[in-house]
Amino acid sequence: MNAQQATPGFIERLRARAAAAQCRIGFPEADEARTARAIRRLRAGGWVRPVEIGGDHGGLAEAARRLAEGELDGVVAGAAHPTADVIRAGLQVVGLAEGAETVSAAFHMILPPPGERVLTLVDAAVVPAPTPEQMAESASAACDARRAIVGDEPVVAFLSYSTNGSAAGPAVDHVREAVERFRRRRPEIAADGELQADAALVPEIGETKAPGSPAAGRANLLVFPSLDAANIAYKLIERLAGARALGPILHGLRRPLNDLSRGASVSDIVDIACITALMSGGSEG
Questions:
Q1: pLDDT digit string (tens) for 198-253?
Q2: Which domain, by its residues, includes 62?
Q3: Least packed by Cβ within 10 Å: which of 15, 140, 181, 184?
Q4: Based on the domain organization, do 188 and 244 belong to the same domain?
């Protein structure tokens, strides 16, 4: 059984919530084979209102322009364009969200049974060596996106090779500073760090290594100290745990423009379109 079959509840809810919004989602790669099939599935399911835009190189800029001017609620691209091109169009045409200084990205990992768990991994696609301020900003944006996409409350763990002073060094200090900056930004969100991955995710280990922590053992949003660590982690979870990876979901733009892996499946494109629709309600924040 594949990961998509193993977790129909989350995907079905995602698509149903997107259908209720009836957002106009632009596809600048409409003539790309997988994207064309995804558009047909989206129309048949009634999940979004797809808008087909020419698939030549100018199509991405045109889609971004129409998004910036409010003719579209969101854009999905990347099946035929590199991530750098998608982000460039977002920055140059759509612009940064108010107060944002960084574009970052997250993957939402849908874990197979038992249970149904969605982990958000930040930043697994854009910023190679984030500063503490960039980590805090990316985490904050990912919290807002998770609320829109998953529909629950984020619990944030800033990951490290150390838990609450079990090790020391510049990298640990880097993460601690990010946590402090995040807490100043978002005091209402449960967050902690520095935490090792097992302390962040496993209740018994979290209680042992970080007793009284507001996030240890129950984190659902993981902030990584580098792009290397985040990208490696998401691919390990995908391949070894049988999780389904949805992303990269871009944060920091004024309106939702989301990237695709150039190896994206038709189902991936469908579900990224639904995610983009859900993000449109909070795209200004």
A1: 999 999 999 999 999 999 999 999 999 999 999 999 999 999 999 999 999 999 99
A2: 1-100+253-285
A3: 184
A4: yes
